[in-house]
Specification:
- By secondary structure, the chain is α/β, with parallel strands linked by helices.
- It has one domain: Divalent-metal-dependent TIM barrel enzymes (TIM Barrel).
- The protein is built from ten helices and eight strands.
- The chain has an eight-stranded parallel beta barrel, surrounded by six helices.
- Helix 6 links the parallel strand 6 and strand 7.
- Helix 1 packs across helix 10, helix 4 crosses helix 5 and helix 9 crosses helix 10.
- The longest helix is centred in the last third of the chain and has 17 residues.
- The C terminus is likely disordered.
- GO terms for molecular function: isomerase activity.
- Keywords: Isomerase.
- Pfam families: AP_endonuc_2.
- This is Sugar phosphate isomerase/epimerase.
- InterPro entries: IolE/XylAMocC-like, Xyl_isomerase-like_sf, Xyl_isomerase-like_TIM-brl.
């Protein structure tokens, strides 16, 4: 089965969703991963589809005309003071567009609050046919695979899963063997990118790389094949922010090169089937 690829929002940071879909189609992506949840970051454009019906119509039309599908939306963060219900309009927009997943991460050190709010997010998403994938981020509160599994085992929601980012997995110091202990059906898609093998000593440098200086697949030092071969065959969302290259090349050419590097890398890698110790989500 051929790998399927999605164009993630951070790869073409600032690109409107309808334009992003057209770029993805021309480059040969199967999906897009959009950010309709406005985060209020400095300089961040607001592409809230729930609040902008004209943009919603353009996005829906672009999906229909190109045949590209919506893989997931981001980013339903869990942090102190957040009420997951604020994400509901964006979840409903994702469902209307045929989306499959919602990406989440945890930015509170209050474990009980994290469990409560993440469980609530899963419950809001379930009637809409959406799963919620928890991503660990090395600069967040839940920063490694152990932390994600702790939350998922506590919430016990069938529509909850784990989303691995190649950069974050490498930086966390987790071992590929640890992936064998994760229920197979908790993996639904992954984030693909590369980065230097050396882990930055400072949080500032790590943050800089993850936000604006990731590398084409196969260009850095992450054992991408070793990680991916421990997972089931799932879509690869290319999240590869590189400010310098995207500005020099433009959104369309940069997105194309990201995809071509991924295809070239995996064409050289033998697919190794792994034996998973768990195959079902605990009830």
């Amino acid at each position: 089965m051929a790998k399927q690829y999605s164009l993630a929002y951070l790869t073409v940071l600032g690109c409107p969703p309808d334009e992003m879909i057209e770029i993805a189609a021309r480059a040969g992506y199967d999906f897009v991963s959009l950010r309709p949840i406005y985060m209020g970051l400095p300089g961040e454009p607001n592409y809230s589809l729930a609040d902008n019906r004209d943009l919603m119509k353009k996005t829906k039309r672009a999906l229909a005309e190109t045949g590209v599908k919506l893989l997931d939306i981001e980013l339903a963060r869990i942090y102190d003071g957040v009420e997951p219900k604020r994400y509901l309009p964006s979840l409903e927009a994702a469902a209307e567009l045929g989306g499959r997943h919602v990406l989440s991460s945890i930015w509170t050190d209050d474990r009980n609050l994290a469990i409560e709010r993440f469980a609530e997010l899963c419950d809001l998403a379930k009637p809409l046919g959406l799963t919620v994938e928890l991503e660990f981020v090395p600069i967040a509160s839940v920063r490694n695979l152990h932390g994600v599994l702790d939350i998922l085992n506590a919430v016990k929601r069938e529509n909850a899963g784990v989303m691995l980012d190649m950069h974050h997995f490498h930086r966390s110091g987790d071992k590929v063997e640890d992936l064998d202990q994760v229920p197979r059906d908790w993996f639904r898609f992954l984030h693909l990118c590369d980065a230097p093998a050396e882990i930055p000593a400072s949080a500032e440098e790590m943050t800089r790389i993850l936000r604006e200086a990731r590398l084409y697949i196969g260009e850095g030092g992450i054992d991408i094949a070793g990680i991916v071969n421990r997972l089931p065959e799932i879509p690869c969302s290319i999240e590869l922010p590189n400010t310098k290259r995207s500005q020099e090349l433009g959104y369309a050419e940069f997105a194309r090169r990201c995809l071509e590097s991924a295809k070239a890398y995996f064409a050289k890698q033998p697919r190794v089937e792994q034996v998973f110790l768990h195959s079902a989500t605990p009830k």
